[in-house]
Amino acid sequence: MSGKAKRLKPAVLTVGNELIYGERENTNGMWMLQRLYSAGMPAEIWISLPDDENAIGEWIRLLKERDAFPIFVSGGIGGTHDDRTRQGIALGLDRALVCHEECYQILEKRYGKHFSGQRKRMAWLPEGCDLIPNDIGAPGFFLEGIYAFPGFPEMLKPMFEWVMERFFPAQGDVEVFEWTVPVSEGTVGPVVERFSIEHPEVSVGIYPHLIPDGQQVTVRLRCSGKDSHVADELGRILKEFEK
Asked: The whole model's pTM is what?
């Protein structure tokens, strides 16, 4: 990036019919969300999409219009008939899908005599993109703030870390503070809401629980290190409900 830095509004997209149909747990999505959160840049949206280039393209366009940045996409960049993410990203960015010469050479060297027609498809990428290295498979790619990874966790994780280290150094650790108070959500809710309005720089959530003898509420505050002083203030407020 050059000039004024873009405000981070991360989006996570996971692609695969098996996710939409509930056939496979979406561990890639959860891992990316947790990794972004730990880096101090929590995602603003997480979407699971089918293996359909039109659906992928539509969401890429919409996210770009809403200034989502960066957009992380996992799954669907292989060479089989149902891998449609490359095509979808190209559609969403109104770019041609072209043979990426560097990617082609990497794949040709890696697969040798087994460099089949399906594997050659993996070199067809959105025009103008750059590559994300992959030591054990086909490269990923990035352009216009979109970063595309394979769906294999063994590949995704080191490639994701490569992107984070080079383009998104840690934004500051997120600290989490938690209190449990023996009251209902309706009792503590108004007080926590006022606190949240007074401190928009932090994230405060209320998580009610039903217990054998009544109700209790967990209040969780998430903030950067520089804002951690507000935890003492909220702790003092909540202590009143323990009496």
From this structure: 0.85
